[in-house]
Amino acid sequence: LAKTTQPISMDSYEGQEVNITCSHNNIATNDYITWYQQFPSQGPRFIIQGYKTKVTNEVASLFIPADRKSSTLSLPRVSLSDTAVYYCLVGSLYSSASKIIFGSGTRLSIRP
Amino acid sequence: SQTIHQWPATLVQPVGSPLSLECTVEGTSNPNLYWYRQAAGRGLQLLFYSVGIGQISSEVPQNLSASRPQDRQFILSSKKLLLSDSGFYLCAWIKRGSSGANVLTFGAGSRLTVL
Description:
Number of strands of chain B: 11
Helix content of chain A: under 10%
Strand content of chain A: over 45%
Structural class of chain A: mainly beta
Shape of chain B: globular
Number of helices of chain A: 0
Structural class of chain B: mainly beta
Largest sheet of chain B: 7 strands, mixed
Shape of chain A: globular
Distance between the termini of chain B: 38 Å
Radius of gyration of chain A: 14 Å
Distance between the termini of chain A: 37 Å
Order of helices and strands of chain A: EEEEEEEEE
Oligomer: heterodimer
């Protein structure tokens, strides 16, 4: 998997839009970008996945520029329940992948 | 449906005692399976992964071991626990996502406290 760099922590307020950016300069042609969310005492859960341009689901949007060397997870109108650690993973997950290593993630804190 | 189960959910063990954590996946065959550990306030550390029965790759050589006796069963063990083994242990498998690319799916975790 490609090495990723994310901010260690971010703070925001309820109702705001939060954007978390992940840098992945060594992304390969076949690599996808996947974001996970982890609450305390739970395993990470899938949020969104994309290859290029923009992907949107009921939870978030993922913006990927043309060079694909970075990606931005956008959480619209956050609430207190969005306080969690967010991980960005980049890799060719079509094939039967082997080693999958998580980075430090971004600890997002939402205040009232 | 495809599900992953881990047990026990919590356990408290004395130093030097053995450990066995079990993980099973239902609704799929030949999954890639993973064991991660998360110490308090820390990130996810990959311990072992397996691409098939009897095939184990170790990422962190220590007093832990893993085995895959059946296609959908992954076991984490230790003969003698250390205080530093305390943590939240997570089993995961790769599930094909709706976009076609695979997604890592986690179990509920096993919280181990070594005293």
